[in-house]
Design goal:
171 residues, alpha+beta, Signal recognition particle alu RNA binding heterodimer, srp9/1, 4-stranded mixed β-sheet, 11 strands, 20% helix
């Protein structure tokens, strides 16, 4: 079970890995490395030699203990946004780095269930990211709770609904 695959032990691989298809995969890789302190796996960087146009058919960026696979979207492929949750140590700092690189804030850093902060952003390729971080203020009284009798849903809920309604092909 631990036999290496291209010098990586199977035990070092995650069970589930996300895949993002975007126009401008190389730029997306730069974004992921800058925003999430990711590291591209050089041996996984695979140009599409059949297209012979400089596009990538496969690349991998390690973020923490996870891998995001990336490829360039072909002209006849539909826009398919990724929706990815990332645990970070500082949601505000990660959000700042994302915005600095062209992302749009969907949900500002907010207290959330279970002692977490949550934030969301839409990257320049139309992918929606959920950031979860340990709560900046660990006071349980400040954490989001559900009041199903409240006629007004929280911004954590409404910002997601608004973002989903507005998702469009960024190209």
């Amino acid at each position: 079970m631990n036999e290496p695959i291209n010098s990586v032990a199977v035990s070092d691989l995650n069970t589930v890995n996300g895949f993002i298809i975007a126009k401008g995969a190389a730029e997306l890789i730069e974004f992921l490395t800058a925003v999430f302190d990711g590291t591209e796996t050089p041996e996984a960087h695979t140009p599409d030699m059949y297209a012979n146009d400089g596009t990538l058919i496969h690349a991998e960026v390690r973020i923490g203990n996870s891998v995001i696979m990336v490829a360039d979207r072909k002209a006849d492929w539909p826009f398919t946004p990724a929706m990815t949750q990332v645990y970070v140590t500082d949601a505000a700092e990660t959000l700042r780095r994302a915005v600095e690189r062209g992302a749009r804030i969907i949900t500002d850093v907010s207290a959330f269930y279970g002692g977490f902060d949550i934030a969301r952003f839409l990257d320049p390729w139309g992918n929606l990211w959920w950031l979860f971080a340990p709560a900046a203020d660990a006071n349980a009284d400040d954490q989001e709770t559900v009041d199903w009798d409240d006629p007004e849903p929280s911004p954590i809920y409404t910002t997601l609904l608004d973002a989903m309604r507005q998702l469009t092909d960024p190209t």
